[in-house]
Amino acid sequence: MERPVTRQSDAELLRGVALFEGLTDAQRGEVIDRSRVRRVKAGAVLFRQGGAATTLFVPLEARVRVTELDPTGHEVLLRFIGPGQMLGGMAGLERATYPVTATVVDEGRVMSWSNEAMQRLLERHPRLARNTMRLMVARIRELQQRCLELATQHVEQRVARTVLRLIRQAGRRTDRGILLDLPLSRQDLAEMTGTTLFTVSRLLARWTQQEIVEVGRRRVVLRNPHALVAIADDLPDREAASG
Amino acid sequence: MERPVTRQSDAELLRGVALFEGLTDAQRGEVIDRSRVRRVKAGAVLFRQGGAATTLFVPLEARVRVTELDPTGHEVLLRFIGPGQMLGGMAGLERATYPVTATVVDEGRVMSWSNEAMQRLLERHPRLARNTMRLMVARIRELQQRCLELATQHVEQRVARTVLRLIRQAGRRTDRGILLDLPLSRQDLAEMTGTTLFTVSRLLARWTQQEIVEVGRRRVVLRNPHALVAIADDLPDREAASG
DNA sequence: CGGTAGATTGAATAGTATCAAAATCAGTGG
DNA sequence: CCACTGATTTTGATACTATTCAATCTACCG
Hints:
By secondary structure, chain A is of the alpha+beta class. Chain A is built from eight helices and eleven strands. In chain A, helix 5 crosses helix 8 and helix 6 packs across helix 7. The structure holds a DNA duplex.
């Protein structure tokens, strides 16, 4: 039901967006003028792997899953994009296709820019270009890190690390521990770590027994972060679970 | 033996460098003025993981290995950088540290820019900024692809793919087949694919028996690309090895 | 209250890692 | 030219992690 968006409220919102950091209010205004804001529902697809890369997105409230399908049909869950993060960065540069699929998890608003608009903005505002590069460098580093993990670590460590990373990104304190505030199935975790839902299930079962986590249907609560970090770092630190 | 570098000869060299594509001769001249060129020997270290990221490099002839060491001491060989490619892109943007180590494989010249110089060039020339982004996007895609492979494919496929990728990057036709023109040990291949040198050795032995490759000490010659592609794609295409 | 997506569990198996030992090769210096 | 040295590679035996497949169970939704 597209409620109208005032310049002011959005200028406010953009203040927290890394991509627009350091821009003047006037510049931010220009960025907003060229943008489009729309509300998306859970399950909606922002873009599909293989589709023409025409648009760059920044979720305002919505959260988005980024997945890639390999030729053999195996799906991998690459990451979750939260409010203020950039999505579809390959657009605005090349006449290319999206290498991944972006699906909305949480309803909310999403800002977007066309290829050409973003191109023009980038040329006009070096600071914007710099921010973009900064974000890309961060992505590259993150991906390198992940390759390293996939190449050298065992499944248990990888799953532990992934849970910790997600907790950092979407953790919410509760009385029972830190809730991973994101509907995350065993399958999802498996796709993020390069394993199977069976193995993830077994791991979570073991961790539950060790009172490190508490799990439910698409739900994880971290009770003993320290112990999970120990697993992630492969310290032979088991059994020290008190505190 | 630092032989003097004329503007003209280097302007010529920069013509093939993706990072400087589309710049005018004048702009290229400015880029060169701000650069430093030096000759490096095999084994030299351009920068070390953890060191302050102060410089961006573009090899002119030299080739460079990029490796990352994980906290547990496991090393991963991320990639080889050839002439004209960019290296150390995280510099020129942030006051950060290199996340990887860059070691020279082949003697040759290397061009470099200080953090500040590149920063200024990027601000002055939107086209340069655009090129940088384009290269970063390519890196991101490549890394995503690699994560996908590491997450979903078996060792044999990964090794096959890696060999094919390297062949594409550094293959040289010979009478015996396509020589992988790069000193590459079993250990190196293992580090690129997230496995052990033992497994790589066994795979190469099997492929040799199938007359797909011919191997020696730090040497690989691809005799039957088609068969290796079949392995990489996990086609049950074995035994069709003739022609 | 039944239907269904999600999760658990067990048993069998495959794929790789690990470790130890021996073989091979490229240099190097006698 | 040959023996020596060290790096690289091969090979075998064994252990173990993680996958696969099948069956069952559970929670939630309409």
